[in-house]
Each structure stands twice: as C-alpha cells, then as structure tokens.
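Researcher: Can you fold this with iron/sulfur cluster in place?
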Amino acid sequence: MASKRQIFVGGVPIGGGAPVAVQTMCKTETANLEATMEQIRTVADAGADLVRVAVPRDKDVEALRTIVKDSPIPVIADIHFNHTLALKAIDAGAHCIRLNPGNIGGPEKVAEVAERATKASVPMRIGVNSGSLPKHLHALERENSVEALVQAAVEFVEMMERLDYENFKVSIKSTNVPNTIASNRLLAEKIPYPIHLGITEAGTKWSGSLKSSVGLGTLLADGVGDTIRISLSTFHAEEEVKVAWEILKALQLRERGPVLIACPTCGRLQFDMDTVVAEIERRLEAYEEPIEVAVLGCAVNGIGEASHADFGITGAKDEGLIFAHGEPLRKVKQEELVDALFAEIDKSLDRGEVEVDAGEAAEGADWLAKIEEENAGELTPERIAAMEAAAAEREDADVTAPGGPDVPEGEPYLKPVKAGAGNSAKRVELDEQSSPTAGRRFSRS
Ligand code: SF4
C-alpha cells in the first residue's frame, strides 16, 4: 500500500501513489563546490531524482546556496546535532531537510526548525536509527527492537503533528535487514506519511547491493516505500543510483533504459559469452529506451524463453543468430554478433519498426532448426522449464473457460534514438581473472 499522504521535494512528488523516487547522497565534502556539483550532475545523469548533501559546518551551508541554484535535481540537506544548521540550510534554499528529532537538542529546537520549514514550505525527512533510540525506549529495544524502532518513529510523527507540521516523510534505518523489513511494514500500517527506505551501512557494492535488494525489494514488493536510497561503500554515488534503478526495474515499478536478460551459461556454452554480455551491457548504457535485450549462450533451446525480448542473440560455435520478438532476423559470424545486434537495434529504433529481410530470416530459422534438431534429446534447463510451463498451462486449461488463459498483449517499444550511439567506444575485454575460461568449452586465445 502506498502512503496516503504526498509531499513534494522540489518538484518531485513523494508518496501518495507517486513513482518511487530514487535518491542518493554525495560523498564529497559539500563545501568543495566543484567536486560536489560534478557528483550531483553524475548522479542526476544516472537517474537520481533527488540528492542529499551533508551539512556539518557553516561553510557547507554557504556552498549549499550555490548548489541548490545549480543542481539539476532537488537537494536535501543532511543535518545532525545542530539545529541552527537546519535553520540556515532552509534559508539557503534547501529543498528538504533531513534530521533526526532525537539528536537535535530537544523539542524546542525541533519546534524552531519546524516553524522555519513551515514558513519556507520546506519538507523534512524525520527518522530514527537503530543505533540512537531515545533512552526511554532502551528497555523495549532489548525486548523487541522492531517495536522500539516503530515506537520511536511514531513518537516523532506525533511530535511533528503537535507542532502542526505535516510536510514530512519518515525513515527507520537499521543495519539489520529483517528488522528493516518488519519495522517498515509495521510503520506503514500506523502512519499515512511517505516512507523513505534504506539499509544503513549496507556495505560494499557487492554485499550492500544484495542486502538492499533483499530488504528494499521485499518492502517495495509489498507496496511499502515511497523513496529509496541504496547505501554503498564506494565514492561513486552513481553506483547507488544504478542499483536502485535495477531494483525498481526488476519489480516493474519504474522503467528506465534497457533491460538485459542473459542465461547463466552452463556446460553447453561454446563461446565467450561473458565478454559478449559485458560488451552489450556497456553499450546499452547509451540507450534511454526500455528495450529488452536477451543473450542466450547456445542455440540448443532455440529462442525459447527469450521470445518476449525486443532483441536477442543466441550463439553457437562459430556463429550466432540475431532475433527480434521471437523471430530470427539473421545469422552472423561470432565475432560480428555484437556489432550486428546493435546495428539492428539502431536501425529499428530509427525506423520505429524492426526491418526483416525474408531471405536472411529464413536462413537464420533453418540454422536454428538444425541445431535444435541435432540436440533434440537434450534436457536443458530451459526445456525443462518449458515442459513444466506447458504442463501447468494444460492444468489451467482444464479448469478455465475454453480457449485457456488470457495472453496479455505487449507492444514492442520502438522509437527513434541516435543511431550508432552504442557502437563508438572500444570493446570490453575480460581477462582470465575476472572471468575464467579454464574448464569451459571456449577460450579467448
Ligand atoms: S543450455 Fe541454457 S544455460 Fe546453457 S548455455 Fe544454453 S542457453 Fe545458456
């Protein structure tokens, strides 16, 4: 369930059914204007809707005045312990103030900030962290940490309501994934305000992305959460934005750019698919359209489960097939596969439709049929899945009306984009360490 209330941070709606907003936080010293603005532009290009900057000193407030004017996206000032910095940040034009009412020096100071924020129509994010709950909740925390987190958040919400200030979103932050899930579920039942989701100190790009995907993904799948921030231990804040978008795209909550589908490879693989997938992923970064591109490691399964993709390739030993919407387009040599795939994507995006050469398509279809026939007896993971799906469909058909289950209609996404956008940069090269070929049916030499 989306939050009932909606607030606006700059022009970005949060909550009340608005798309889940992606935010991140600059890793730069805020007072270093040049570095901070560069990072803000980078994260905005990567798809951040909002950006937060730390404001621990007066010179950061000074920089904030320029940052809010020059930033392409709304800026949230992150304040701890010092309420005068919150007041100054509001005066400097911050689009939102993040503060923890529990560490700002008492209710009078919270009231002062709320009054100033009301006058300036500036929203706030108020929140609690698992590490800094108010003293009176410590006993409850030992007994039930989830209850304690939610209780603290609800008390802050009530405090703001008593101050007649309701222009806020709420966050409960914990390093513990199950506690984050449980506390935010409970919070969403108790308050109508938008909820900010994040896993505090989630970790490195690898572990942090996984923890965040599990924690935030679970909540978002439940409909809980109106804005998300992925916290990763990397200077490159744009990586946080990319992970956030992958989570939203995986849950089909928002669309942005292409979706890449790739088989996991197995002992049937006969070409360097790791390099091909890395190359395709890199080139797709230049595209804005939500096209779906599939890469299959072998042609044993035909186009199979990738037939819904807008484009795809399936490789064999020396050759591969390019396909679009489940239909073969043409067969090409292995080393030309990626270039040929992007040539087809660019052509189609320019024309608004896929161009099919009947002769080449028939040649590709024959090639595919031959490989499928040669390997007809192999029970691949995809064939087993297809058999299971067919069996399930038969079961469904037995209990539904004649004609079986409805097939949803999907329109391919094709609209003009700069031709060749993805083909200019140099090729990706993977080495043995990052992607070993030893023990597999291909080499890179
Ligand atoms: S059988 Fe499936 S997983 Fe194995 S290489 Fe072929 S497409 Fe990939």
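Model: Folded with iron/sulfur cluster in place. The pocket of iron/sulfur cluster is lined by residues 263-266, 268-269, 296-298, 300-301, 380-382 (CB under 6 Å).
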